[in-house]
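Assemble and predict.
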Amino acid sequence: MIATLFATAGVAIAALVVLLSVATVVRRYRRERRERRRATLVEPLRQVLVRLVTDPTGDDPSEEHVELLATPPRTWRALEPTVLDMLRKVRGESRDRLVALVVAHGTVERMRRRTRRPGAVGRAHAAELLGLLRRREGRDDLVRLLSDRDPEVRLVAARALGELGDTSAAPALLASLVTERSVPLRVVARSLARLGPQTGSTLVEGLRSPDALVRSVCAEISGLLGVTAAQESLLAVTDADPDDDVRIRAARALGRIGLPSALPVLVAATAPDRPAPLRAVAAGALGDLGGTAPVQFLEALLDDADLRVSTNAGRAMTRAGAAGLLRLRQVAASAGDAGACAREALAVHALSHGLSTGPSRPIAPPSSSDPEATVPPRPREPGLPAASAQDARSS
Amino acid sequence: MTTVLVADDDQDIRELVELKLSSAGFQVLTVRDGQAALDAVLERRPDLAVLDVMMPVLSGTDVLRALRLHAAGDDGTPLTKVILLTAKAQEADVEVGFALGADDYVVKPFSPRELLSRVQAVLGRGHG
């Protein structure tokens, strides 16, 4: 009895395996046949497409445009993936010609309709293509997809909005960070960055958001894009935001923007009662401001008890122009933590500029109670360019 | 006739560049991998090679390195000028390309029209 049961089960399993194998082979065969048919249909038109993109005649509309526009819907659907694939490879006039063809064939409208279909893959694909085509008609559909029930669709829609380049989508992108159906921070940040400095007013508004994540992203992107209009808000945020991460990103942004008016707030952010990560980033940002003004404040941080602060201060001095480097060389000749930090910063600076730091040699500690008065400027080491040339590059 | 070699594993790119350059009066050879590109340069001595960086067998930078080592005239000047065509747009990538001796660098997605201008500029004359 048991043997019969096992035999029956074995036969059933074998039959199932055979059936699945046959189904797989049939599916593969049908797919290949479909692909071959598509290739046969598309190949002659592909050559026309290549001619359209390279525009050898310069006619407007070109013969190729007219010919491709006249393709029947079934043929166009077979050709469309090739067109869209080519769209990813070219730019300029060539791209414009492809987009004009795609638009004339109603692809944008079809993709917009597809954003409402039940299948998530179809919606994501439509969103991607709307971004690729960079047509403003697709903006509202993409914004709607930012709150799609499928996280992948939301992600693709956020990326597509960045591609689209319509800055009016920036508030929706920011809002997508903090809704129940959120979009990953990195994707939103990248899309906002792609939209460019024209998103400035949205970023300034976002720095006043009650949500720390939004303020954080706005601070970061303002710095990356160099949004000078955000300076005042960034100063306020660096000084008094309740969230340390936001303050840190705002301080970094102030350095990247590089306006001298950031100096007092950044100096205040290095005060010992501030959180150490903020102090360290503010020290770095002071160096990014450049000029002579930050040097004295950075020098005071070279012997800071927190290694992150002192290290960043040293490296920031190498970026602060001639005065920073000169002072750093003087301090490097002194004993103690500040001297060690200065020597390390100079070594890193030399390495990152492909310069020789020269043979190592002991540096005499200061012999008087006034190190600044007695320690001579460190003699230039072999291979290290003169301060003036070096400093001009740094500044 | 001025000869240009186009090496790219992407058929679309090869055909686009071939048509654009040939319609401007250049003779164009096309290959689909780095080894074929190197062989073609050594054998046919084209005036200029447009090399994709990411190619099978040998990368465009490998080909360029080999060309700059071996394929030079009696006075040491390169026999074939090289334009790198690549999706790698980081400053460091561009720097590496020029350090290896590339004459120009075009980033994908590219404009066929701009590429033609660069080819003409590298070859040092208006053509076609």
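DSSP finds five helices and five strands in chain B.
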